[in-house]
Amino acid sequence: MNALDSIRQLYPVSERASLGIRRLKGDASTRSYFRVTAPHGTAIACIDPAFINAAPDTYPFLIVRELLATHGVRVPEVYGMSGGTGSLLLEDCGDLMLQDEIPQLDREQLSARYRQIIDLLVKIQSIRPDEKALESAIPFSLSFDHEKLMFEFDFFIEHALKDYFAGRLGESAIGRLREEFLAITDLLVLPEHFVLNHRDFHCRNIMLFRNEPVIIDFQDARMGLPQYDAVSLLRDSYVRLDANLVEELKRYHFEQLRQHGLTTMSEEEYRRLFDLMAFQRNVKAVGTFCYQTSVVGNSSFEADIAPTLGYLRDYIEARPELATAGELLEPLISR
């Protein structure tokens, strides 16, 4: 059964012939999305190979969606599903992303919108496992542990340094850089500070539907430093915010964490870990963009490589812990 037939199966037989189905632009995942126009309105169909023959109560998207919705986080409704074909029918929350709204806002409006979204982020980071969601269950059983962070660093080494930027760094330099990545990872694995993170909390995963933020692409949620999602939002590969606004919003996030009892860090420690986490997160993003460009053949991410590398110098100059890694990465970030 092809994708269009799978989608039609989610509708009553009487409506299937009249459906309009249009494929939407994809992201960096293996999922495919379609907008479906039916007699009673539109919906978004998702075809996910990972959902094929999976039980709904083991499928991360549905588990995390229910968790977020239960705690008052606005996420798309689920209208129907078929594990046999890996298809889901979701609420259509429009096409307006936070990324699209940013150029339309003045400084005051932009600050207000981002504060609203940080409030939503803190609501996510406040979620704790309860009797129905034990610590052994998704997403609380997953974290940005040593293995995960090094997987992301190694992905960058494989697809950025050894492929897309092949020849810029020699094998010896790459080996030394990996040792620095190991040391940085050790500084970021602090389970005592971990909270729930969306994991990809950037301007393309925040829809604005009827002027309300709606969170999407949350299925990879896991535990980690509260700075991880803040970095995704404020040091975004797809939009560069004014430096003064970033500082204001970092302070706002820290204050909200303190007010909600979510951190015992000092502001100085919060800022230090923000920069270290931002370095890791942006390096990881470059690895993904290089992989999409060179391996998948998806050139839509290539333009985001240079701006993301451009962030690294700020962290390197601010934090001595990153000095050696910065020297080794100079052939990439100097251009």
UniProtKB/TrEMBL annotation:
Membrane-spanning intervals of the chain: none
Q: Which GO terms label this protein's molecular function in UniProt?
A: transferase activity
| Record InterPro entries | Aminoglycoside_PTrfase, Kinase-like_dom_sf
Task: Outline the extent of the Aminoglycoside phosphotransferase domain.
Answer: 21-254
Q: Where is the signal peptide?
A: none
Q: Which domain of life is it from?
A: Bacteria
List the protein's name.
Aminoglycoside phosphotransferase
